Amino acid sequence: xxxxxxxxxxxxxxxxxxxxxxxxxxxxxxxxxxxxxxxxxxxxxxxxxxxxxxxxxxxxxxxxxxxxxxxxxxxxxxxxxxxxxxxxxxxxxxxxxxxxxxxxxxxxxxxxxxxxxxxxxxxxxxxxxxxxxxxxxxxxxxxxxxxxxxxxxxxxxxxxxxxxxxxxxxxxxxxxxxxxxxxxxxxxxxxxxxxxxxxxxxxxxxxxxxxxxxxxxxxxxxxxxxxxxxxxxxxxxxxxxxxxxxxxxxxxxxxxxxxxxxxxxxxxxxxxxxxxxxxxxxxxxxxxxxxxxxxxxxxxxxxxxxxxxxxxxxxxxxxxxxxxxxxxxxxxxxxxxxxxxxxxxxxxxxxxxxxxxxxxxxxxxxxxxxxxxxxxxxxxxxxxxxxxxxxxxxxxxxxxxxxxxxxxxxxxxxxxxxxxxxxxxxxxxxxxxxxxxxxx
Length: 440
Hints:
five-stranded antiparallel β-sheet, alpha+beta, six-stranded mixed β-sheet, 9 helices, 22 strands
C-alpha cells in the first residue's frame, strides 16, 4: 500500500486512499524546549539534561511516526445513492472508512467540503483497529434547486499528545443535481375543451392537421390540399377532408427569466449559518422559484400524458429545448430548469416574438411569467392567428411584495379570450394549476 495520493472514482461509488499531508500542531514549544535542553546538556554536561533531552526527542519522534501512521493506509469509500433528487426530497450518501494497515488508528476525522446547502457529511472516528471499518450514512433534505459538488474531503489525525496534526485533502469529487419542486396534477387545461389535457378536442378546424375527421362536399374557398382524390374520383365531384385539432400537438413552455420582473420576499436571517426552513409549499419566496416549479410540474404532467414538450427561456443565454416525448426529454428539461437563473434581459413579449420556437398549427404556447407588462398578452394572442393555442400562468408578483399586481394582465388575458391561471405566494401549486383563475 503506497503513500502517494491514490484516488479511483467509479460512480456512484468512489474509493479514496489517503497518503501524505502534515501540519504542525503543538510541537513547536516541545521542539524549542528540546533545543534549550540540548544546549544546557552540552554546556553543563549534567546527566539530567541528557536524560531529559533523550526523553523529549523520543516523544517527538514517536508522536511524528504515530501521526504519520494514522493518515496512511486508510481507505475511504463514498457512495452517492443517486446523482439526482428534487427540492423537498433527500440526498443520501454512504461512507465507509477502513484501516488497511497493521497498526490501530488512534482517531480520524473526515471533513467534507461539499457545497450542497445543509450537507454535513463529516465524521470523527475513534480507535479504528487493524482491518476494521466504520460506516455512516448522511441524509440531507434538499431545499434549493441547482447542481452541486460533493467533495472534496479532508482526512485529519494526530498523535496522542497532539504535537503533530496531519491533514490530507482527498480531491475526488462528484456532483448531484437537485431538480425543482414538482407536484402531482390530476389535470391541467380544463378550459376551452381540454386545451392541453391529453384528450382529443373533437372539434372541427379549418387548419390542416394529422387528424382526419371525415369528408364532405367542396365549398368555394377550400384549398386544394384538402381535396380527397379517391372520394372525388368515386363520387365524380370534388370531395374535401375535414380535420380535428391535433390532441398530441407540441407544447412549448415559455419560462420568464427576465431579472427585472422578478420579486422576492426577504427571508429571515439564519443564525450561525443555519438554514431557514422554506415556507409552504417548500419554495423560496421568490417569483423565480415559482416560475421554475410551475414549468417543471407542467413538463412532467404533460410528458406523462405522452405530449411532446419544449422549452424557451432567456437567462444569461438563450435556452431552447426542442419538443420531444419520453423520460429522456423530461430529464433534459429538469436539468435545464435546475440550473437556470433569472438574469435575462429579454421580455416575455420579445421571447414570444422570437423565431426560436418552430410553431406548427395546433401547437400550444404556455407562458409562465410574473410580468405585469400586458404586451406579452398581445403577442400570445397574435400567435392564435397562426393557429397556435395559448395558455397563461401568471405568478402574482404582488403577493411577493412587488408594487404592481397582476390585475391589468389578468384583465388583458380575459379580453383576449385566453385561458389563464394565477399562482400566489404560499398557495399550493396543484390547487392553482388545476383551477383556472377568474379573470373577469
